[in-house]
Amino acid sequence: VVRWEMRTRLFLRTTEFLWQEGHTAHANRPEAEQEVERALLMYQHLVEDVFAIKVIAGRKTKSETFAGAEYTTCIEGLMRDGKALQMGTSHLIGEHFAKEFGVSFLDETGQKKNVITTSWGVSTRLIGGLIMAHGDDKGLILPPRIAPYEFVVVPIWKTPEERTLLAGVITELSQHWELENRRIYVDWRETVTPGFKFNDWELKGAPIRIEIGPKDVAQKQAVVVRRDTSEKTTIPLNELHGKLAELVQSVQQNLLQRHTQFVAEHTYEPKTYEEFKQLAEQAAGFFKAFHCGQADCEAAIKEETKATARVVPFDQPKASERLCLRCSKPAQYQVLFARAY
Question: How many Cα atoms are found within 13 Å in the side-chain-facing hemisphere of 97?
Fold first, then answer.
């Protein structure tokens, strides 16, 4: 399902806001709940294993639950400016939709029953999240699994003879990579300098850049540059095939590890509500707090700190004998609060 919305926001929402959405109907609640979990895990796998962005999975509070749903599960990411970004949701709608529109079925005993429905989705804001989570002052940094090209080859030549020499070497290398379905691009543009190409591919976030000129061919080597660390290494041509496969995996893993560390370093656990308010004003990130679960208390926190309840993580510490950070009533769960988009 594709929907269009007109309110724009840099990186997150264009005038045509594309949305991937799924809806399912089930004969019973356990099957529906299993589908809610399956869809959220699918999105978590996409964001963490492909986009290399660490997310926190859990439920929304009642106040933040999708309208009409019994409960909402979500994955929340943290961007480099310390603001939270909702990156996917999965809802148990229950019988609400079925009752409203008369969607029913006959079970194996012939009894008429309402279906139990779910709804789940992500949007093109994932692309904005990718830009904001990994990008730097040079431009994009794309994880290899999502990049249009895993590596880009920049030939460096001055004469037609040098170009012909490089073409033969690069064609031979490319044939090996293409057999493994590697996504490669050889930049043969003649209207710009090699230096321009280096900057251009850094701006575009190419994970790995391979620089090769006549001197490199003579020495049977190539210069390889990682976009994530800017590390430059010289690799023998006869080792390039295997080394690049290792580098692709290394870049992917490093980006996820780096963002995981960023989330950990920007997750705070204030001991008092005053400390919470100070952190929300002075710092950016996730703020862990035990909460009573009352809507009026949650609304007051939002009003007083501008931080909203982003997610109730599935991984919960024991809340027995814990008190709400704001009102000191018995806590129902621990919440991650943050300022958000």
Answer: 16
What confidence tens digit (pLDDT) does each residue in 232-254 have?
A: 999 999 999 889 999 999 999 99
d(CA 70, CA 94): 6
Q: pTM (2 decimals)?
A: 0.92
pLDDT > 70? residue 6 = no
Phi, psi of 222 (to 5 degrees): -145, 155
- Residue 230, judged by CB atoms within 10 A of its CB (0-12, 13-18, 19+), counts as exposed
Angle at alpha carbon of residue 252, lines to 247 and 253, rounded to 5°: 95
**Would you say 300 and 323 are in contact if contact means Cβ atoms under 8 Å apart?**
no
Q: What is the DSSP string of 183-241?
A: -EEE---SSS-HHHHHHHHHHHT-SEEEEE-HHHHHTTEEEEEETTT--EEEEEHHHHH
For residue 50, give the DSSP letter. Answer: I
For the chain, the C-alpha Rg in angstroms (whole number) is: 25
